[in-house]
Specification:
Alpha-Beta Plaits, binds magnesium ion, 4-stranded antiparallel beta sheet, 14 strands, binds adenosine-5'-diphosphate, 309 residues, alpha/beta
Length: 309
Amino acid sequence: MTIISLQHVTKDYGHGRGIFDVSFHVKKGTVYGFLGPNGAGKTTAIRHIMGFSKPQQGIVTVSGLNSWNNASTIQETLGYLPGEVALPEHLTGEQFIQMMMDLRKIKDDTHCKKLMDFFELDASGKVKRMSLGMKRKLAIVTAFMHDPDILVLDEPTSGLDPIMQQRFIDFIKDEKRRGKTILLSSHIFTEVDATCDEISIIKEGHIISSFNKQELLNMTEKVFHLTVENTKDYTQLIQMIESDITFQLISKNEQINELQISCYPSDLSKLIKRIADFPLLSFSEVPFSLEKHFMEFYDRRVGGELPWQ
Ligand SMILES: Nc1ncnc2c1ncn2[C@@H]1O[C@H](COP(=O)(O)OP(=O)(O)O)[C@@H](O)[C@H]1O
Ligand SMILES: [Mg+2]
């Protein structure tokens, strides 16, 4: 079931800025990553989802409701973490939390307390004296205090230290386990890689690639790291790899009888059968990196141009 849908959405700010014919769909219970460099159009697309901005062309819906026509309902029910948060500086964190609880008519503060513990938010001080990281945590807690079913997160980990970034990734995974639908924008490969099921890449307002991560994994060559006991076996192993077009030799280090090879998932059984005859000292898979994949993808397809340039 589709929860968030953008169909051919265009918002042209002039001079090539904005978003153009953007379409994507976020299914219930999935995490969707919207990846792109600064200025690519991520916030513009998200503002249309939240009903803050009216598309010039195309339709945006959330749970079947047109975002622009139902903006207040959408803004009340969704959990939205903006890229840049403006908080009332004169209040204490606790006063701000109470104000948001009243606005959202929340009586039970159990979920809010849980979030404060999870993100280690000390809300006792004045907002204006809080560090940037603490302000972000306060924004996170107030954005999700009503335990929304749909979370829309615009570059959620910016301004968080590495430990809190990891905590946030854990939070997204937990929310997914709880059945939530999540859209997250980011310019950081690793956090999208760690959390998202579906990914779209946006560049200069255009979606240039959309894919399902599992399908990509199934289609992508797997890389293995091997070491064998002695030089004789090592030489034979290299010969075996080089004589079979199913396998590719990626790198070798003769000094330690080590090599890296790759093959498609469909040839895995064949690879394992062939290498089983060799006295292996180690055999491990080199984890797939989305970042590496994309750098190679752009290197090959668009004459060395990287998506982030
Ligand atoms: N309200 C606006 N008026 C004019 N230009 C805008 C407006 N909002 C965004 N832009 C421009 O549209 C482009 C996309 O911006 P944005 O969606 O904020 O990118 P991102 O969130 O990916 O960094 C940028 O060039 C930005 O300057
Ligand atoms: Mg942005």
